Amino acid sequence: MLDQILDTVSLVCVLGATGFSIAAGVGLLRFPDALSRLHAATKPQVFGLLLIIAAVALENRSLPTMLALLPVFVFQSLTAPIAAHMVGRAAYRAGQFDTDTLVVDELGPAVERSESRGEGADRPERGR
């Protein structure tokens, strides 16, 4: 009886992760610029991975499996947002975003200060 319940919960986790993957794909196709697309790709990836790891842990309930899954989740949870942040900064500096969709531009003054100090190479015009 417990195995059936855990199998059902595992199935729900896999279906939830599938939903997050579909949402990420739709977001990548529908959002207008690189910054929006990064958000659509990063958030579902982390939550979807959590659900997949939970499904694997529920199906294979052993200590070695848990010890293998824990660092996968920790490192992916740490590196995915940082990688998206760095790609977002590069996209911003390359002008690959729509200025009309920005509500607050907190990076603009910092980029201008660094360019005025000569820390950056010649940059293309930002925004569309």
From TrEMBL:
> Where is the sequence biased in composition, kind Basic and acidic residues?
112-128
UniProt keywords (A-Z) are: Membrane, Transmembrane, Transmembrane helix
Which regions span the lipid bilayer?
6-29, 41-58, 64-84
Please give the family membership noted in the entry: Belongs to the CPA3 antiporters (TC 2.A.63) subunit G family.
Do the record's keywords include Transmembrane helix?
Answer: yes
Please give the name of this protein: Monovalent cation/H(+) antiporter subunit G
Database matches in Pfam families? PhaG_MnhG_YufB
- What molecular functions are annotated in GO for this chain? sodium:proton antiporter activity
Statement: the UniProt record of this protein carries the keyword Membrane: yes
Spans annotated as Disordered: 108-128
